[in-house]
Design a protein that fits this description.
12 helices; 379 residues; 5-stranded antiparallel sheet; alpha+beta; 3-stranded antiparallel sheet; 45% helix
């Protein structure tokens, strides 16, 4: 599906008129005959997404085939809602940050148009306007499913559903099959990341250090001079196309009514990197400490089995465990950066709750200590 260019990319959901939608859906073959006669939209997912607008659009047709979608999700990532999130407020003060965010939005459009996945929403239409920095995605409506929630975590059974989806996807793009055009290397430049992390650590420890055990503070401090090596080690191992932000807020369960499925949203951070970046972030951030300890080995074994069944050779469960330990350190560095990058006074309700929970629930700290990541950092 090529990115159509006949239509002006909408600024707001109000621009999704019946006439505009008729042309958009006809250009991509979703609407083979007839026209959209009426379209009504409502905002959805506002508490889970902190930038842009997502709208559910209900459609009524004249003369259309019966399989035309009765509703769809319109994602306008550059649009502005009534409440300005901490993320958007920071972007408005930093043109370079705003540019990088737009580039991620363009990357997501490319993912849906060029890559796609059975466990991602189906794409009906997409377009990019580089001059005005606008992006639009019209996607399959999966709002009838059960929204994942980082704050509440998930069951072992739900975690297994995500592993069942992400492992075959990783296998599909493993090694030389990984796309290189438009999908950057995960983690960026290791030396630059380490330098930036070094500037963030003191602020982080001042704000949050008293709430952490001494062993965790030691890992955070020692990572100042070793983060580049960790990232380089992950980059030296097997690479695939990864989501790179695989947490429960980006997952919908039972989205298509079969009772045994998971769909992953928000592919703005899709990158080429270690598969362990997805596996570690999801498993160690989604399960309670007790459930993760009970099920971790079985879930990692299942992942290794699934990729082997799809032709991946030379990467067994022990390799995955090693890389997940490294990935935990990358997740830790990302968490330090996230918690120090925003003004707490600018956070919306869920933004604040997520920041408070990331350390308070103990999942990340317990995983770091359980896996003895300090041994990876040397003396």
């Amino acid at each position: 599906m090529d990115s159509p260019s006949r239509l002006r990319v909408p600024d707001t959901p109000d621009d999704l008129t019946p006439a505009w939608l008729t042309v958009a859906l006809a250009e991509t073959g979703v609407l083979r005959r007839g026209a959209v006669a009426a379209a009504e939209w409502e905002r959805v997912g506002g508490e889970y997404g902190f930038t842009g607008l997502i709208a559910r659009v209900r459609l009524r047709y004249e003369g259309a085939d019966g399989d035309a979608p009765r509703s769809l999700i319109a994602k306008l990532p550059m649009a502005q809602g009534n409440v300005v999130s901490g993320y958007r407020a920071r972007q408005e003060r930093d043109p370079a940050l705003a540019r990088r965010y737009y580039e991620r939005c363009v990357r997501e459009e490319r993912f849906y148009r060029e890559i796609g996945a059975t466990f991602a929403p189906a794409l009906y239409y997409s377009a990019v306007d580089d001059v005005r920095r606008r992006v639009v995605l019209l996607l399959e409506d999966l709002t009838a499913g059960r929204q994942g929630d980082v704050l509440h975590g998930c069951s072992i059974e739900d975690a297994a559903l995500v592993i069942e989806e992400i492992a075959p996807f990783h296998a599909r793009w493993w090694g030389e099959r990984a796309p290189v055009r438009g999908f950057p290397r995960a983690g960026g430049d290791p030396d630059a990341r380490q330098e930036r992390y070094g500037r963030q650590v003191d602020v982080f420890l001042e704000r949050y250090g008293d709430a952490l055990p001494a062993a965790a503070r030691s890992v955070i401090d020692r990572l100042r001079s070793r983060l580049a090596g960790v990232l380089a080690a992950l980059a030296a191992g097997p690479q695939t196309l990864v989501h790179a932000d695989l947490h429960l807020d980006n997952v919908i369960f039972d989205a298509r009514g079969d009772g045994r499925s998971a769909v992953v949203l928000d592919w703005q951070t899709s990158s080429v990197g270690s598969p362990a970046l997805d596996v570690a972030l999801f498993l160690f951030g989604s399960l309670s400490i007790e459930d993760r300890r009970a099920a971790e080995d079985a879930l990692l074994d299942r992942y290794a089995t699934l990729i082997a069944e799809r032709g991946v050779r030379g990467y067994g469960v022990n390799d995955l465990r090693r890389d997940c330990r490294l990935a935990l350190l990358a997740v830790l560095a990302g968490t330090v950066g996230w918690l120090t990058s925003l003004d707490p006074n600018e956070l919306a309700d869920r933004e604040r709750a997520l920041q408070e929970a990331v350390l308070a629930d103990g999942r990340l700290v317990a995983a770091l200590l359980d896996h003895d990541v300090v041994a990876l950092l040397g003396q």
